[in-house]
Design a protein that fits this description.
Strand order of the largest sheet: 1-2-3
Helix content: 40-55%
Structural class: mainly alpha
Strand content: 5-15%
Number of domains: 2
Largest sheet: 3 strands, parallel
Radius of gyration: 21 Å
CATH superfamily of the largest domain: uronate isomerase, domain 2, chain A
CATH topology of the largest domain: uronate isomerase, domain 2, chain A
Number of strands: 3
């Protein structure tokens, strides 16, 4: 029986192994949709622990934890980072066959060189091993992106965003990965949400005119699309 997380993980035929190892494995990544924070990339953030980099913005993990009955305090609440990680370890213990289980262990293996299966029993050891590596300069935001062989990535950005960090990244010649914004106007159609009016008021400020009709609203959004285009945006999420 072969290892769980071996070099041929999920590759069940000789054809699959040839296509992956000889062609796909070393191809660059052009990521047209991600939730990376452009500010963290520009500042080359150094993460304080595995919870911050792994659980801080991953709604797929959050969903699994909620399905497992984990209290929100340990997901997006005020629990300590280590407590949140331990709850995630308990959850992944119940996720055999779920892609989250595969992704988790691929990341542990490929980024951290850890062969352990994450569980309640191994959580403490995984916590210590990952955090030890995250404390080095090889695991900053930019280094993780380069480690993944990413050449272009597109973040998801609100129409009222200033895109200041995208602009700054384009001027930073020390980082050769293309980081472009993607236009994500969800808040502009969720008129039933409490945050819609403050969002709308901010759009009006940026537009520089009172928005008192659908035509004006459309025009304001079109002006933001044009601004995004100038900063390198070519897609909408």
């Amino acid at each position: 029986m072969r290892e769980f997380m071996c070099d041929d993980f999920l590759l069940m035929t000789d054809t699959a192994k040839t296509l992956y190892h000889n062609y796909a494995k070393n191809m660059p990544i052009y990521d047209f949709h991600c939730h990376l924070n452009p500010k963290e990339i520009y500042e080359n953030k150094k993460y304080k622990n595995i919870t911050e980099v792994w659980l801080g913005g991953d709604h797929y993990k959050w969903r699994a934890m909620r399905s497992n009955g984990v209290d929100e305090r340990y997901i997006t609440g005020d629990a300590e980072d280590k407590e949140k990680f331990m709850k995630w370890a308990e959850t992944i213990d119940e996720c055999y066959g779920n892609p989250l289980f595969h992704w988790t262990h691929l990341e542990l293996k490929r980024f951290f060189g850890i062969d352990l299966v994450l569980s309640k029993e191994t959580a403490e050891e995984v916590w210590n091993l990952t955090n030890e590596k995250l404390a080095t300069d090889k695991f900053t935001a930019r280094e993780l992106i380069k480690m993944s062989n990413v050449k272009t990535l597109c973040t998801t950005d609100d129409p009222i965003d200033s895109l200041e960090y995208h602009i700054a990244l384009k001027e930073d010649k020390s980082f050769d990965v293309v980081v472009n914004p993607a236009f994500r106007p969800d808040k502009g159609i969720r008129i039933e949400k409490d945050e819609f009016i403050p969002w709308f008021n901010r759009l009006e400020e940026i537009y520089g005119e009172k928005i008192d009709s659908i035509d004006k609203y459309t025009s304001a959004l079109e002006s933001r699309i044009e601004f995004f285009h100038q900063v390198g945006c070519r897609i909408s999420d």
